Amino acid sequence: MALSENEKDLIVQALQLYLQQAGMQLPPQSMQQLVTVVKGIIPKLDNLPAGGDKRNSMRPAGISEEWFEKVCQECAKLSESGCTDKITVKFPGKCDPILKYERTKPSLQPDPAA
Question: What pLDDT is attached to residue 92?
Answer without folding.
Answer: 82
